[in-house]
Design brief:
Layout: H1 2-36, E1 40-47, E2 52-59, E3 62-69, E4 72-80, H2 96-106
Antiparallel strand pairs: 1-2, 2-3, 3-4
Length: 114
């Protein structure tokens, strides 16, 4: 009984090792270069419900606004490429709370005397 169990376990380990070796070979040969040359980029996305999202995709100089729900993807609108916040030279404006927090943390703290 134990030799059959040991043989089954050895076979399982061999199959899992072959899967990892195959995946490694696939990534070395052609898996990663195709991903790096992908012209499609996700610019932004908003979750609307449990399974619904609106996503902005960038393809070349075009933005596509698509709705994604339950395995369906529908084009909602097509736009020329816009300047995103990361490409803009101006940093985003701070809210009043973040300004208050920055001012509060910048105040010198009193020293304790022993």
């Amino acid at each position: 009984m134990s030799s059959a169990l040991l043989q089954a376990f050895g076979s399982l380990v061999l199959v899992v090792a072959l899967m990892f070796v195959g995946a490694w070979i696939f990534r070395r040969v052609n898996g990663l270069p195709a991903i790096k040359k992908n012209p499609l980029k996700i610019v932004s996305g908003v979750r609307l419900g449990a399974r619904e999202r609106v996503v902005v995709l960038e393809i070349a100089d075009t933005w596509l606004v698509v709705g994604v729900a339950n395995g369906q993807v529908n084009t909602l609108h097509t736009l020329p490429r816009q300047i995103s916040m990361s490409e803009n030279n101006h940093p985003p404006q701070k809210s009043s709370f973040s300004q208050w927090l920055s001012a509060f943390s910048a105040k010198p703290k009193p020293r304790k005397r022993f």
